[in-house]
Amino acid sequence: MIIVMKSGTPDQEIQGLEQQMREWGLIPEKIVGQSQVVIGLVGETASLDPEHIKDLSPWIEKAVRVSKPYKRVSREFRHGELSRVAVSTPQGTVYFGEQDPVVLVAGPCSVENEDMIVETAGRVKAAGAAFLRGGAYKPRTSPYAFQGHGESALDLLAAAREATGLGIITEVMDTADLEKVAAIADVVQIGARNMQNFPLLKAVGGQEKPVLLKRGLSATIEEWLMAAEYLLAAGNANVILCERGIRSFDRQFLRNTLDLAAVPVLRSLTHLPIMVDPSHGTGVAAFVPVMAKAAIAVGTDALMIEVHPNPAQALSDGPQSLTPDQFATLTQELAVIGQAVGRWPEPIAAVV
């Protein structure tokens, strides 16, 4: 349930209502919008009568039930207001949100060595990326495939950030590694295979760094949003959702099926920012540019694109990785679409 306060409601009136809700065993969450304050109520609200709630104060405009099973994540919970996730990086604060420029995240699937990750970071930054992606811990289908360098790779990511000023997004796979990953990452990623790892969701939700939650390989949109609910319920409201392709019946030509329709669907259901990963979504480097352009056209807030200096020799996901030159060309093309929809800050100079 949410309580919508009238414009200009005094702070002490809001504080009094919050205290009343706590006495009833509910958790009140104050959401400050552009013109109104909304108090979201979490807990057993089924027995509450909205009309009775409205009688508690003349400053209450209305009380409305949240019909979705994902309460904090739903757009209803914020009375239509969209979230804006702010991420601190060495170059300044980067914002993920519908009113902000599209954020570019780029880098290799796995951190392989220092020269490779620092070189890639420099090249993607020059092309317009604000964040470097790179896996230190890698979940792989085969137990014999490269699993990442682990903790030592985190140090290499830190070196790349020191050299370039890019923010770092990297995945955590185990609660035992969370403290180490969060110490380096500016955004902690929960990968597709861990989308419903509930102990991990609770632990990551309990720490302060922003979180990128990738959609599971076979997850419905509601299951995905319920996973995000775990993060918000644990205390972290700075969550970005990432569509990265889902498993479908035709895998002859594509690794996954990139569900671009999920972007407008999510926009109607949740206040959380949205990212699209066309690299995993297709699995084929040649198809990444066109799907990245389409993602901007349908309203994504960010793109995550795999870039490797030599995809043929990549230790993981080489077939879906662009070269730095290909990425630089792509950003020029993305700028045209981004400017057309009002989501690009300024033209990017050609990268030689």
Model description:
The protein has helices at residues 11-23, 50-54, 114-127, 151-164, 178-184, 198-205, 221-233, 262-269, 278-282, 288-298, 324-340; strands spanning 2-5, 27-32, 37-42, 60-64, 85-89, 92-96, 103-107, 131-133, 167-171, 187-190, 211-214, 239-243, 274-276, 302-306. The protein folds into 2 domains: 2-65, Alpha-Beta Plaits, CATH 3.30.70; 85-340, Aldolase class I (TIM Barrel). The mean pLDDT is 93. The chain starts with a strand and ends in a 12-residue tail after the last helix. The protein is an alpha/beta fold and 352 residues long.
Report the CATH architecture of the largest domain. Answer: Alpha-Beta Barrel
How many helices in DSSP terms? Answer: 11
Radius of gyration: 21 Å
Q: What is the assigned CATH homologous superfamily of the largest domain? A: Aldolase class I
The domain count comes to 2
Indicate the CATH class of the largest domain.
Answer: Alpha Beta
Shape field: elongated
Instruction: Kindly name the structural category.
Output: alpha/beta
The neighbouring-strand order within the major sheet is 7-8-9-10-11-12-13-14
**Beta content:** 15-25%
Low-pLDDT parts are none
**Biggest pleated sheet:** 8 strands, parallel, barrel
Number of strands: 14
Helix content: 25-40%
Write down the secondary-structure element order.
Answer: EHEEHEEEEHEHEHEHEHEHEHHEH
Mean pLDDT: 93
What would you say about this model in short?
The protein is of the alpha/beta class and 352 residues long. It is 33% helix and 18% strand. The protein is built from 11 helices and 14 strands.
